[in-house]
Design a protein that fits this description.
It is a single chain. It is built from 9 helices and no strands. The protein has 205 residues and is an all-alpha fold. It has 2 domains: 47 residues, Homeodomain-like (Arc Repressor Mutant, subunit A); 135 residues, Tetracycline Repressor, domain 2 (Orthogonal Bundle), CATH 1.10.357.10. The longest helix has 28 residues.
């Protein structure tokens, strides 16, 4: 006898098992990425996976369940940095005036480059995948800068002729192109000077 039209049927095994990762698993993954970032920046991209697991307070098997290789965790750390930087634009705009949001975002860019400088050589070892990864990352970062500049121009916080791509070129020069000791502090000072130059000239002053 066939089931009534409105009678619920048992879910297929695949449907029962295709669940979102548990909240604790997601937290564990995020914790591992944060610890890995700190380990890479403190000890270099060659730090052992055993050391990362030790710092995170987990067994090496737990680390491998989330990241099956060194390349996988390095790539995940980089993707997380890009995601946080890109999403930071809207987050900052939600809590700060557009000009201040732009300034704070450029300071976040310094932190992003600090991590990238450490892990970029290791990322390069994944070959063509690194090229695609860098291209996608560049698109997201350019989009975030464009949004911030658009809002800051519209509010009158920065000059109307400000160009987002010009600012990114300046930031890359301040950060990635700056290899001297204490480059991060230097970059932050230069960003402050840059922001002073972006403010509209008040002819009444």
């Amino acid at each position: 006898m066939s089931a009534a039209p409105n009678q619920p049927t048992a879910a297929a095994p695949e449907a029962r098992t295709a669940r979102k990762p548990r909240a604790d698993a997601a937290r564990n993954r995020e914790h591992l990425l944060e610890i890995a970032k700190l380990a890479f920046t403190e000890a270099g991209a060659d730090v052992s996976l055993d050391e990362i697991a030790r710092r995170a307070g987990v067994g090496i098997g737990t680390l491998y369940r989330h990241f099956p290789s060194r390349g996988a965790i390095i790539e995940a750390v980089y993707r997380r940095e890009v995601e946080q930087l890109a999403e930071g634009a809207e987050r900052l705009l939600a809590s700060l005036p557009p000009g201040a949001a732009l300034h704070e975002w450029m300071l976040l860019f310094v932190d992003y480059i600090a991590t990238k400088k450490v892990i970029a050589p290791a990322l390069g070892a994944i070959g063509a995948g690194a090229t695609a990864l860098f291209a996608a990352s560049g698109t997201r970062i350019t989009g975030a800068m464009s949004l911030l500049v658009e809002k800051a121009r519209a509010s009158g916080d920065i000059r109307a002729d400000t160009d987002g791509e010009d600012l990114l070129r300046a930031l890359i020069g301040f950060t990635y192109g700056n290899t001297g000791r204490g480059w991060e502090a230097s970059a932050r000072r230069l960003i402050g000077i840059l922001m002073d130059g972006l403010r509209p000239v008040n002819l009444a002053d």
